[in-house]
Design goal:
alpha+beta
Length: 254
């Protein structure tokens, strides 16, 4: 059977040994060679098989280690080229500031959205931001309210309205209650919030989007006892004290 399979792979009809040409020139130039399955596998003892399997695992582990090392080196070089510390805490890559809602109105096409003008200390004036807060706050409750705003996110169109930031709020587990994260009343407008012991400058909006910085940070945003807003268990502070929500405890913030 193996002899026939060899001829098949060579694209020839089987030839008996006595009919084989002495110069062995039976193959034609341009003939297609079929690879297919291995005809004669190497015979290995159980000990050899175990050794080969272990070597394969070691090679895979080493290859994986080298790939991860190469990725880390590329990331470090990119960070160095941009002047960014590769060990910078993720929270500090966001530009979260104290803002004040100076104007708010209903979005014309979305029954859950408010359109807001929020003063975050920009020289160009208040930013326009959309928030899905209509089911939870009235227009009167929103007006002149101090909030926390993520300011280095790429502007997004929300049903025709260009939103240039995100207002932070905590949500109950069942989604029936949402509370805005508020800075102290006397916290300066435009002040960037901080966490004790963490330093770093905010990254550009395109990096926030491309590297999913907010999504990474959001995993650690939560309210503590007393409604204190925190990241990875550390309170989010202004120069006038911590930022809080009225009642929700252990609730995610986004």
């Amino acid at each position: 059977v193996s002899c026939k399979e060899i001829f098949q792979k060579l694209g020839l009809n089987p030839v008996s040994l006595k009919d084989v040409s002495p110069d062995l020139r039976h193959l034609k130039v341009g003939s297609e060679i079929l690879v297919g399955a291995v005809l004669f596998e190497k015979h290995l003892s159980e000990e050899d098989k175990k050794a080969a399997s272990a070597k394969k695992k070691d090679n895979y582990a080493e290859s994986k280690r080298k790939k991860e090392e190469a990725k880390a080196n590329i990331k470090a070089k990119a960070a160095a080229a941009s002047g960014q510390d590769p060990n910078q805490p993720d929270f500090t890559k966001l530009d979260i500031r104290v803002g004040k809602i100076v104007k708010v109105w209903n979005h014309e096409e979305a029954d859950k959205l408010y359109c807001e003008e929020i003063d975050v200390g920009d020289e160009s004036g208040p930013r326009e931001i959309a928030s899905g807060l209509r089911p939870f706050y009235t227009l009167e409750e929103m007006t002149n309210r101090k909030v926390l705003v993520v300011c280095n996110m790429k502007p997004q169109k929300m049903l025709g309205f260009k939103s240039s930031g995100m207002v932070l709020a905590a949500k109950s587990e069942d989604g029936t209650k949402v509370e805005l994260v508020a800075p102290p009343d006397d916290a300066p407008i435009g002040e960037r919030v901080a966490i004790a012991g963490l330093t770093g400058e905010p990254v550009a909006p395109n990096q926030v989007q491309r590297k999913k910085v907010f999504e990474t940070v959001a995993k650690g945003l939560k309210t503590l006892e007393g409604g204190v807003a925190s990241w990875e268990g550390k309170s989010i502070e202004t120069s006038k004290g911590p930022c809080k929500v009225p009642t929700l405890v252990g609730a995610p913030i986004s």
